[in-house]
Amino acid sequence: MNQKIDWKKYILVFFITLSLFLTAVYLSNFFHRSRAEEIKSIQSKIAIDILSSETQYALLEDLSCKDVSNSMLSQELNSLGDKIDYQESNSSAGNAADLVDLKRYYSLLEIKDYLLMQKVTERCGEKAFFILYFYTDKENCSECVKQGYVLTALREKYPSLRVYSFDYSLDLSAVRALKSIYKIDDRNLPALIINKEVVTGFKSVEDIEEQFPELETLLIVEKTKEELGKK
After folding, report:
1. How do residues 24-41 score in pLDDT, each as one tens digit?
2. 137-141, 160-164, 177-181: which is most confident
3. What is the CATH number of the domain that holds 105?
4. Residues contacting residue 179 through CB under 8 Å, at least 6 positions apart
5. Of 32, 148, 228, 230, most Cβ neighbours within 10 A?
């Protein structure tokens, strides 16, 4: 006996399926447009930030010698550094992309500040001491964390010391250029560039002070400035 076909049911299923398909297509297009707009917004923001940074750099080239240690770029670096430390200590999949963006912007500012302070200290006849520090995550560099603590201790002991840290794995052309110039290899991390001399492997405070005795001149300069400031 032939069963009667329930066309209404098939038509209803067809329209439900069509509705789901159209909804999926709409949502896909909506999120695609939203993502495209978000990317465009980010690109615009980065372009403005870079232009702002370039303008700051040009202005600060005429920095007064008495303000050598307190450039606006240095202040911005301190603020960004705190944000990166917080993001790294509270890392999650949700903020991984934000952390990379922060590191990229931070690294660019560091390089600009490094170039700026080299020029300004040379113009002002100041004694300068720069350390560029290359590190990677603790899974691939067990001594990088310890090296970071050593550099923090050095900065506390020598306030005029300028330390710039760079994530070796960061995909940024400016960082790649630094690695190429100084021939930094990921097999020899942590790596330090101390006043343009490359030092690889973990180094303690004592190791660095012994290899670079000129660090002591920073303390003499600081004490001289303090004495002159009191007069």
Report:
1. 777 777 766 665 565 556
2. 177-181
3. 3.40.30.10
4. 134, 168
5. 148
